[in-house]
Design the sequence.
């Protein structure tokens, strides 16, 4: 049975937010930091309280810490040592393996995210802009009352119009394929596969092998928490649209190129089910838009290219041990939308997302290292994920087609990593423990 | 980031001398569990050497039969490792038995470490590794410890050669399938 009243809401629920704010914090003084944790804890929804107040509540808060942050709070060395190695090192230290090289490298990251001074994140999801504003002001007051807590940087996020469905700046419909957690009461939609054991996402529960994680220590930290990889990914919308125009003569052809990069039409309709022509009704139908696989339905990639984004991020029935590689994704687009037809205005826009999993090395880092950035994924030889892979213009993209495939050479980078970090997302009791570290002596 | 494949010509045999320690110091690639041994004309590979716990030799011969049976029943059992060849060797040094496990494959071991660890449990490879001195008994829940054992006992090559360099097993299988398809086509034309 999941302890819904101890699990931070972000792990199990999705807030109906139109605005968000991430604040990245540094702790200069342990006592002040603990006072901040103690106060902010009162504003955090558990999964249980989030569901109970869903109709009336207007804001949802999440707090998580870097390894340096846990040290700054005063966690003892034995406990610090019990965390996984990749979390201790942090995302910036693992940049080469993650593919965060060239313009994606930590030396170019903004907001202090590559700095060892990054200690915590507080995530606000607000129902509307007015509530966003109110919460920012409230948190500003709390920070002022905690002189040892410094705001390194902030990121404000707003849903992109039209508001009826989730999508990002390139125009693709989002949130179509989410793992389902056993015992969470999620609706099992066609194509979602069997529910996964909670231990794949939440520490303290059996995972797909029946193993219950025993770290971090003490035990209170190994209950109802998780790990979270943050990625701030700038999307180069102008460059993306130029690319579509360059490789597709008609609007229809351009849509097809966009679909071939993703594996879905921008409407969300999967190419496996709609290979020739977009089907917006299919794209919007959550009972149908995820109901497909590859092994029998598209083994050679004639519909969904073997290197396309969705085929890499979720190879479905064409990869081994898929259940050990799934991740939860939360987050939202940031930056102003670029109107269709407008030249790129140079403003930063993109997606700022959290990838949540019980093991960063087995889940997030595997996806990043193998699925996204291995040039030889699916024996492709010279490709990376066309949307979020690390590109320097030397790689290609192959679109299987009869009689002869289409090969696009010199694929540009449509995205750039602007920052990232690894966080530990404690359960609420664990958060209380961290807030009272000094008192325990 | 540039692809190695551009410079790789399968029709031209190639050899590569590898520095002491197994890495080219100026271009060590990092994997999730540490530095990755370089790809050579003979693809990726490992040679793991370890001492057998005295008196356990017979287990290795029984295990060979087990693996033979496993693969006969499930030919795809080792597919995730993207292998060309595996060789298991027992040899004596000063009266003690040593075990060598040598593999040639198309992906660096690090990429699929957790899958490999799982696989070893399923296929019975565990039996044989557990009879090696220093093998971590908690390996099933501790992939990092498994990887450390493999790395500690890896003896990197100092020279590798390939008659058809850098060709993946998939490419070989595709070529054979193509040959078979052409043969079939010619039969149909008679």
Sequence:
């Amino acid at each position: 049975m999941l302890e819904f009243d101890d699990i931070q809401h972000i792990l199990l629920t999705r807030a109906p937010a139109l605005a968000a704010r991430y604040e990245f914090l540094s702790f200069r003084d342990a006592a002040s930091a603990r006072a901040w944790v103690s106060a902010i804890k009162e504003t955090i929804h558990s999964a249980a309280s989030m569901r109970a107040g869903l109709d009336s509540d207007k804001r949802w808060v999440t707090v998580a810490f870097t390894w340096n942050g846990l040290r700054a709070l005063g966690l003892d060395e034995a406990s610090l040592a019990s965390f996984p190695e990749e979390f201790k090192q942090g995302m910036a230290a693992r940049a080469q393996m993650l593919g965060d090289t060239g313009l994606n490298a930590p030396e170019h990251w903004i907001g202090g995210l590559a700095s060892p001074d990054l200690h915590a994140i507080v995530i606000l999801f607000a129902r509307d802009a007015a509530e966003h504003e109110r919460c920012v002001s409230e948190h500003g007051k709390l920070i002022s009352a905690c002189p040892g807590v410094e705001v390194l940087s902030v990121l404000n996020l707003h849903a992109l119009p039209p508001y009826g469905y989730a999508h990002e700046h390139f125009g693709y419909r989002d949130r179509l394929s989410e793992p389902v957690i056993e015992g969470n009461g999620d609706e099992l939609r066609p194509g979602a596969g069997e529910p996964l054991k909670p231990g794949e996402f939440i520490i303290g529960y059996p995972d797909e092998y029946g193993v219950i994680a025993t770290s971090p220590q003490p035990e209170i930290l190994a209950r109802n928490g998780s790990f979270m990889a943050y990625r701030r990914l700038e999307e180069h919308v102008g460059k993306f649209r130029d690319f579509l125009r360059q490789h597709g003569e008609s609007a229809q052809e351009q849509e097809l190129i966009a679909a071939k990069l993703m594996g879905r039409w921008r409407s969300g309709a999967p190419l496996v089910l709609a290979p020739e022509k977009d089907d917006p009704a299919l794209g919007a139908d959550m009972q149908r838009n995820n109901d497909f696989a590859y092994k029998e339905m598209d083994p050679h990639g004639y519909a969904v290219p073997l290197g396309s984004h969705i085929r890499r991020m979720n190879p479905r029935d064409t990869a081994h041990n898929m259940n050990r590689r799934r991740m939860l994704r939360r987050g939202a687009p940031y930056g102003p939308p670029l109107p269709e037809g407008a030249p790129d205005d140079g403003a930063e826009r993109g997606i700022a997302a959290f990838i949540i999993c019980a093991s960063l090395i087995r889940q997030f880092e595997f996806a990043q290292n193998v699925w996204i950035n291995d040039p030889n994924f699916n024996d492709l030889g010279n490709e990376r994920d066309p949307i979020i892979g690390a590109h320097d213009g030397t790689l290609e993209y192959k679109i299987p087609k009869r009689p002869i495939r289409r090969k696009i050479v010199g694929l540009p980078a449509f995205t750039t990593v602007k920052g990232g970090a690894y966080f530990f997302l404690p359960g609420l009791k664990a958060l209380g423990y961290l807030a009272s570290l000094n008192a325990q002596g | 980031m540039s692809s190695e494949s551009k410079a790789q010509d399968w029709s031209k045999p190639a050899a590569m001398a590898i520095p002491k320690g197994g890495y080219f110091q100026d271009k060590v690639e990092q994997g999730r569990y540490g530095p990755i041994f370089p790809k050579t004309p003979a693809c990726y590979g490992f040679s793991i050497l370890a001492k057998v716990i005295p008196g356990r030799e017979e287990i290795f011969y029984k295990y060979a039969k087990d693996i033979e049976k496993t693969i006969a029943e499930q030919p795809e059992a080792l597919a995730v490792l993207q292998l060309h060849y595996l060789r298991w060797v027992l040899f004596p040094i000063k009266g003690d038995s040593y075990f060598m496990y040598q593999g040639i494959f198309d992906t660096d071991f690090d990429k699929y470490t957790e899958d490999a660890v799982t696989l070893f449990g399923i296929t019975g490879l565990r039996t044989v590794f557990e009879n090696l001195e220093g093998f971590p008994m908690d390996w099933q829940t501790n992939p990092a410890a498994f990887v450390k054992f493999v790395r500690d006992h890896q003896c990197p090559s100092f020279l590798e050669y390939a008659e058809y360099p850098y060709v993946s097993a998939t490419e070989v299988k595709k070529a054979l399938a193509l040959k078979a398809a052409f043969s079939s086509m010619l039969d149909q034309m008679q």
